[in-house]
Structures are given as C-alpha cells and as structure tokens.
Amino acid sequence: MLKVLVASSKGGAGKTMVATNLAAHYAVDGKNTVLVDADRQGSSLRWCDKRALHVNAVLGLPGLRRDWEKHVPDDAQRVIIDTPAGIRASEVGDYLDQVDVVVVPVLPSAIDLEATEPFLAELAELPRIKRGKVVVGVVANRLKPWTNVSQLAVEEMQRFPFPLLAELRDTQGYVLANALGKSIFDYHSELVHSHQEDWAKLLRWLKKHS
Ligand SMILES: Nc1ncnc2c1ncn2[C@@H]1O[C@H](COP(=O)(O)OP(=O)(O)OP(=O)(O)O)[C@@H](O)[C@H]1O
Ligand SMILES: [Mg+2]
C-alpha cells in the first residue's frame, strides 16, 4: 500500500487539486484508492461524494481525528491524505509513521517560495525524513511557462533540498474537472493528454516508493 501525504505551509498552493488528481489517477488505474481529508473545509470529501456518481470511485474518509487509519479498508492499495493550509513541519512529523511519501505543491511567486523554503528546511530535519524512511518531493503548480516569473520560480525550486517532480500548468481543466468530482485523468482529449504528461515524472517516482 502506498500512502502519500500532500502538505504545504501555504494555503491555496494546490494540495486538494494534487490530492484529488492523484487519487483519481490511481482509481482510473484500477487501484482501490482512499482519499483522507484532514482539512475541515472538506473539499476533498465533497469531491469524493460527487465522484461516487461515476465509475472509478474514490473512498473519502474524514481525517480530522487521528484514528482515520482504522477506517482504511484492508484491501486499499493507495491512500492519499489532503491536509489543511498553514500546517507546520512538526505537524507533518505527526503523520510520518503513517506515510511513505510527502508531496509539497508550491506556487510560482516570491511569497510562496519564501514561505516554503523554511518549511522544507524544517522537514529535512525531521528524523524519519533525515533517515530516508519517508521521502519528500516538490510539485510546481499553476505555472505559466511562457512567463519569466514561472521560469525563475522553477529555477529556484530546483535548488530546494528535495527533488522537483512535476511542473503543472495553470489551466481551467483542473478547475472544471474538480467541480464534477473528476480529474484530468478521466478525460482523453489531446489537450488533456499534454497535461497528464506533466504528472509522468511524479507518478514514476511515486511508483518507485510504493
Ligand atoms: N494547476 C491549476 N490550474 C488552475 N487552477 C488551479 C490549479 N491548481 C489549483 N487551482 C485552483 O486554485 C485554487 C486553490 O487550489 P486548491 O484548493 O487545490 O489549493 P489548496 O492548497 O488545497 O488550498 P487550501 O490551503 O485552502 O486547502 C482552487 O480554486 C483550484 O481550483
Ligand atoms: Mg485544500
């Protein structure tokens, strides 16, 4: 079973977008997938409810209580945990006995980069991460690749202490799909396919750690 924690110190970086798209990817791939929502906003749970109307459903579990693990079915193959904004590195530490991987989405702006740097430095000092028991990867999100701002932000992210595993572009496709309980992995047009490819390196890396 692969367990992925999606966390960032900044709000609005794309945690829920990454968590729901990852969950959908695994569900479409035929894996029994659970999405744990540890954010009281409940966006991931609402997405699971909408998705229940389609094929490739994802089981949503409330994750506000520490006992969520008891409710994960024995046959679950993928567990994705969506966390709230403003999480501290020490709070990420509370999850590290329960997960294999931490994915940190980051937006291409100075505000986000500067807030993320100390968060990642603190993560790097957590014992299970330091010992390599849990691995951490960064995802650049909402990039506008033709802009200087995005290009410089990506260069800066490449200097982070953890690998940059995806460069996701800003597109309404994510917003439209999410509203329907779907993801970009539920569609097959050529345009959507190019956005799916943005996830390929991250998905390969996750497979390596499953
Ligand atoms: N790649 C993208 N392209 C376009 N819109 C995006 C993208 N990623 C996220 N968004 C939009 O940005 C907003 C914030 O994304 P999301 O809710 O996933 O962030 P979050 O980190 O979960 O926020 P919070 O900290 O409030 O939980 C949402 O409106 C979402 O639809
Ligand atoms: Mg969220």
CATH class term: Alpha Beta
Classified in CATH, the superfamily is P-loop containing nucleotide triphosphate hydrolases
Number of domains: 1
CATH fold-level assignment:
Rossmann fold
Biggest pleated sheet: 7 strands, parallel
Order of helices and strands: EHEHEEHEHHEHEHHH
- Total DSSP E strands: 7
State the shape.
globular
What gyration radius follows from the Cα positions, in whole Å?
Answer: 16 Å
As a percent range, the share of helical residues equals: 25-40%
Description:
The chain is of the alpha/beta class and 210 residues long. The protein has 9 helices and 7 strands, in the order E-H-E-H-E-E-H-E-H-H-E-H-E-H-H-H. Strand 6, helix 6 (148-157) and strand 7 form a beta-alpha-beta unit. The structure holds adenosine-5'-triphosphate and magnesium ion (MG). Magnesium ion is lined by residues 15-16, 39, 43, 82.
What is the topological layout?
Elements: E1 2-6, H1 15-28, E2 33-37, H2 43-51, E3 59-62, E4 78-82, H3 89-93, E5 101-106, H4 110-125, H5 127-130, E6 135-143, H6 148-157, E7 164-169, H7 172-179, H8 190-197, H9 200-208
Parallel strand pairs: 1-4, 1-5, 2-3, 2-4, 5-6, 6-7
Bound molecules: adenosine-5'-triphosphate and magnesium ion.
Provide the descriptors you would attach to this structure in a database record.
210 residues, alpha/beta, Rossmann fold, seven-stranded parallel beta sheet, 9 helices, binds adenosine-5'-triphosphate, binds magnesium ion
How do you describe this structure in short?
This protein is of the alpha/beta class.
